[in-house]
Known about the structure:
- GO terms for molecular function: aldehyde dehydrogenase (NAD+) activity.
- This is NAD-dependent epimerase/dehydratase domain-containing protein.
- The chain is of the alpha/beta class.
- It has one domain (7-160, 182-213, 256-273): NAD(P)-binding Rossmann-like Domain (Rossmann fold, 3-Layer(aba) Sandwich).
- It has eleven helices and 15 strands.
- It has a seven-stranded parallel beta sheet with strand order 3-2-1-4-5-7-12, with helices on both faces. Strands 6-15 form a two-stranded parallel ribbon.
- Helix 2 (39-47) links the parallel strand 2 and strand 3 (51-54).
- The longest helix has 16 residues, at 128-143.
- The N and C termini lie far apart (40 Å).
Amino acid sequence: MSASAEVSTLIVGCGDTGVRVAARAVAAGERVTGVVRSPASAMRVRSVGARALRIDLDAEIEVLPACRRLIYSAPPGRAGEADARMARVLAALPVAPEHVVYISTSGVYGDCGEAWVDETRAVAPDTPRARRRVDAERRIAAWAPQAVILRAPGIYGPGRIPVDRVLAGEPVLADTAGGWTNRVHIDDLAGMVWQVATKQPAHTIYNACDGAPTRREAYYDTLAALLGVPAPPKIDWTEAQQRFSAMRLSFLAESRRLSNARLLADTGYSLVFPDYRDGLEASLRGDARAC
Length: 291
């Protein structure tokens, strides 16, 4: 496919979530192109009836196809506090399309403790990773003021749940040392993306979550029960610092309770998995490791 050919929907970073969005777009009769890096990812994109365009977002990009709908799902790079990948992508697009959706992260809010968090809360990123996301949000909003930013928390689904950790009996941080966690099933995230990509909602920033934050122990204990194994042992923060990677600790250090009231009110989206327990059961049915 020529990179300059116009498409209906262009998905940059067409990974697990992007492929699910691509399938919805193809079913709606769209001409869909997914931008990927690897041959394996290209095969997945083609498997749902979309075209694949292999591009290295860390290299110079000559031109990308014009589109009516842009869905940007690629993460920033791993260094610095700016999203150079997004800068290259936006420079390679001939014009901002009518509909733009960026999948960001709830990490831009930083640590919010026990507070409920809606979209009126100011961003306060605590890590370089989150600051890169804030940079990306600001870049795409400046390029396309109508762009809708979806701030997603932990994404779970088939192959995206800690089955191996729980089966191995690895410990988790005790609730007395940790805060609130939030999540969204990958099928719900894809549904939210397609919903806002086909309609221009009233706002441009939404928390894309199931709206049911939990303590960490509840999530792991539920998964253990579904797997038929003992609940994971609980450890305090001191022991966690000795056992866990710096990356994992950075996630554990933050707490927030995300509200999805604005998204549900503005879009009318109906969650497939408003209860993480149902989502875990469905995920296990699609996860070969749990069989």
